[in-house]
Amino acid sequence: MSVFGALNRFISRLDSDSPSQSSSFSHGAFGFQVLRNKNLEIGIEPWYDFIIGINGRQIDDPDPNLFATEVRNCAGSTVTLTIWNAKGQRIRTLQTPVPTPSPTLGITLQWTPISNTEDVWHVLDVIPNSPADIAGLLPYGDYIIGTPEGMVHGESGLGELVEDYLSRPLRLYVYNHEYAVTRIVTITPSRNWGGNGALGCVLGFGALHRLPVPLTEPPAAPGETLFETARFSNEDARPTSAYSQSFPTGNKSKSPLLANQSSDFLVPAAMTAPPPPPKISSPSPAPPRGSRGKRHVVSPNRAFEEYFKEGEQRSKEEDFAPAAKATPPPPPPRLGGGPPPVKSP
């Protein structure tokens, strides 16, 4: 844990030294967090959006009356809001009209430090038959962002809350990155479920586990191909499948699977035989048809044997191996015989 903690602190230091605008707002900055949005025509997302500027000026005063006055001054025209989003830690600019009869935006705000969005726990793994598995937590896609039971701060904040709710139902706000939805999950922590931990899941915390940027396209439904338009260059275009025509984008995850989806799969192009090579005319004249000589036909196996024998002979010559017909060495002395006689000089 100390290695990961040091790595998180190092990445946080790099983020603080970065000249990017989003990083400067995410460390030690405040903003009006959107708690509720009654005006569906405004593209503002509760909890994740922070209003940090209005009409080109950064908001540094927590007085909500000043913000409301600035909005009323724009009645009959548009107001420009600078919004910081916790998903991907990005900043965007939003222009929205302000009606004349009631010059309000229809949103509920609270002055909150932006660092509160860093208290996020990423679900990395879920043990089967654990409290987390029974509650419906999904690995990699789910992020625990809070709880209606109270405020949770720091890496150990969630663990302390779980200890207080052992054998009792605990509600958690969970954001799913793949489907871009936030739901309430009720989980009952327990030490007697048969595994390690009270939740039965692996959680990640820190700079490496912040909320990522939302996906631009919905994930593929079960049975769907990953690359629906991929095909070879020499393959004719395939017609659109009935599955794609029947269900619009975004609702495929709730639609039933069709039995026949052969047109969705990547089918390789039909292989055609190459044309025969052109005939090469030999410079020497062909022998007459009348002279039929004996043809020497060499089988492929015999050709390989001759090739291997030639290589073996060449290897023996290079290694100076003695031939098979060389003079054999003298026989060993007979048993029981004395030593050979020694000639005197």
Q: Rough shape?
A: elongated
- What is the H-and-E element order? HHEEEHEEEEHEHEEEHH
Low-confidence stretches: 14-24, 226-235, 238-272
Mean pLDDT: 75
Number of strands: 11
The end-to-end distance, rounded to whole angstroms, is: 90 Å
Largest beta-sheet details: 6 strands, antiparallel
Rg over CA atoms: 40 Å
User: Helix coverage percent of residues?
Assistant: 10-25%
Strand content: 15-25%
User: What structural class results from the helix and strand content?
Assistant: alpha+beta
* Count of alpha and pi helical runs: 7
Can you describe what's shown?
With 345 residues, the protein is an alpha+beta fold. The protein is 20% helix and 20% strand. It has seven helices and eleven strands. The protein has helices spanning 2-17, 21-26, 64-72, 131-135, 157-164, 242-246, 300-319, and strands at residues 30-37, 49-54, 57-58, 78-85, 90-97, 107-113, 121-126, 142-146, 170-176, 181-187, 201-205. The strands form two sheets. Strands 1, 2, 3, 4, 5 and 6 form a six-stranded antiparallel beta sheet that branches. β9 (170-176) and β10 (181-187) form a beta hairpin. It is elongated.
